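Cont'd.
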Amino acid sequence: MKTRLTVCTRKQRYPTANDAHHAAATATITLRPYRCERCRHYHLTSRTKGKRVPRPLFANTPNDDKAAP
Ligand SMILES: [Zn+2]
């Protein structure tokens, strides 16, 4: 999977993996550094493979009304 040019140009770039990891560690959300094929630098992605994406707290549950006594 190649990084799209628009993604590459718009994203923050990190010259080394160390910089990317440091930035990911200080972020408030889970970020994963990855090597960009286009600029040969590193970007951060919020996509974390193998991990479940947290569901929104206010997800709609349409059947709730029927379940009420
Ligand atoms: Zn890039």
